[in-house]
Amino acid sequence: MTQNNSKNPWLWVPSLYLTESIPYVIIITVSVVMYKSLGISNADIGLYTSFLYLPWVIKPIWSPILELFGNKKKWFLSMQLILSLVFLGVGLTTGLDQFFIITLAFFWMGAFASATNDIASDGLYLIALKPDQQSFFVGMRSTFYRVGMITGQGLIVIIAGNLESSLGDPTKAWSWTMIIVSVLMLVLTLLNLITTPKVLEERSEKTEQPSIGKVFQTFFTKKNIGLSLAFVLLYRLGESQLVKMASPFFLDERSQGGLGLSVTEVGFLYGTLGVISLLAGGILGGILISRDGLGKWMMPMAFAINAPNIGYILLSWQQPDSITLPAVVVVLEQLGYGFGFAAYMVFLIFLAEGAFKTAHYALATGFMAMGMMFPGMLSGYMQEWLGYPGFFIWVVLATIPGFLVAFAAKYPRDFGKKAA
C-alpha cells in the first residue's frame, strides 16, 4: 500500500467525522422534528423515519464494492456531494402538496449515500493512519462526531425554530433550514477534498480476500451467536421507541398530552444539554470499562440506559409549565444513555473479534441499526393508541428484555480492560 501522509490528520479527521455525523443526525433525528412541525402524525413519523435506518442495516451487503472499485476518497466525496444535493432537494420541495412523500424519497437517497459515506470514511481512516495513529486520533474522531450531533440536533433545530418565529411559516422555515444544511454539506465536502490525503490502495492481495459467503458463515457460526444477537437487538428496545416520540411529546400541545415547547427549546434540550450529557456519560463509561472490564459494569450500565426513561412518565403526568423539569429529565436520560451505550459498543467490538474483524463489525452494527428500526416503526402507532402516559409506561416495560439479555450475554468479564 502506497500512501501520501503529507496531509496532517489534525486537519482532516475532524472534518471527515463532522461529515459523517451531520447527515446521519439530520436524516434520522432532525427529520422527526421537521415533520412534526409540518403537521405529520406521530404514527407516520415513527413508521417512515424509522424505516430510514434500513441502509445502515444492510450496508454490509454493498461494502465489498467499495473495496473492489475506485478508492475511498472518491467514494466519500461523491457521497457527500450527493448528500448536499439531497438536502437541497428537501429544502426546495417542503412547500409542495405531496411534500411528505417527496422529501422522504430525498431522505431515502440521503440515507443510502450517508451509509456509503460512513463505509468509505472509516476505510480511509484505517488506510491513511498507522495503528498507533488510529488509537491516538480515535478520541478526536469520536469528539467531532459528537460535535456534528450537536450541530444537527442543536444548532440546526434552533435555526429552524428562530426562522419559524421570524417568518411565521414552518414550511418556509424548514425549507430555508434544509438549504442551509445543503450549503454546509457542500462546504464540508470541499474541505474534505482539500484536506484528506490521497491514498493508493493496492489490489495485490485480492486473491486472499474472503468471499462474502465466508464472511457471513464465520459470523453466524460464532459461539453463542444467537444470544449475542438477541443482546444487540434487545438491549435498547425501550430507548429505540422513546427516541422517536420524545421530540413529538415536547412539541405537541398540552391539550394533546404534550408539553407545548417550541422548536427552539427542543433544539436546546436535545442538541445542547442532551448531547453534552451524552458525551459525558460515554466518556465515563469508556474509562470505567477500560479500568475494570465489561463484566463489572454491564448490569449497572443496563440500568443507566433504561431507568431514566421513568422520567418521561413523570413529565406526561405533570405536564410542567416551565422547561426546568424537562431539562433535568433529558440530562439524566442522555447521561444514562451515554454511560449505558459504552457497554453496548464494547460488546459489539467483542462480537467482531477473530477473523474478518472489520466485516464482522459492519455486520454487528447492521443488527444494531435493525434493533432501532423495527421498534421505532411501531412507536408512533403505540403512542397514538396508548396516549403519552401509557406510551411511556410501555417504554419502561419494554426495557425488561434489555435487562434479561444483559444478564444472560456471554463474554469474557475482563474484556475491554486495559492491559497493565
Strand and helix layout:
Elements: E1 2-3, H1 9-37, H2 42-51, H3 54-68, H4 72-93, H5 99-128, H6 131-167, H7 170-195, E2 199-200, H8 212-220, H9 225-234, H10 237-251, H11 263-292, H12 294-306, H13 310-318, H14 324-351, H15 357-397, H16 400-408
Antiparallel strand pairs: 1-2
Helix pairs in contact: 1-2, 1-5, 1-6, 1-7, 1-10, 2-10, 2-15, 3-5, 3-15, 4-5, 4-7, 6-7, 6-11, 9-15, 9-16, 10-15, 11-12, 11-14, 12-14, 12-16, 13-15
Provide a brief overview of the structure:
With 420 residues, the protein is an all-alpha fold.
Spatially, the strands of the biggest sheet line up as 1-2
Tell me the overall shape: globular
Average predicted confidence as pLDDT: 87
Number of domains: 2
Q: CATH architecture of the largest domain, please?
A: Up-down Bundle
- Give me the Rg, rounded: 21 Å
What's the CATH H-level superfamily name of the largest domain? MFS general substrate transporter like domains
Distance linking N and C termini: 33 Å
Write the CATH fold name of the largest domain.
Growth Hormone, Chain: A
Helix content: over 70%
List SSEs in N-to-C order. Answer: EHHHHHHHEHHHHHHHHH
How many helices does DSSP assign?
Answer: 16
Query: How many strand elements?
Result: 2
Detailed description of the structure:
This protein has 16 helices and 2 strands. The protein has 420 residues and is mainly alpha-helical. The chain folds into 2 domains: 8-197, Growth Hormone, Chain: A (Up-down Bundle); 211-420, Growth Hormone, Chain: A (Up-down Bundle), CATH 1.20.1250.20. The protein has a two-stranded antiparallel sheet. α2 runs antiparallel to α15 (357-397) and α3 (54-68) packs antiparallel against α15 (357-397). The longest helix has 41 residues, at 357-397. The chain is globular and about 55 Å long. Residues 1-5 and 203-208 have low confidence and may be disordered.
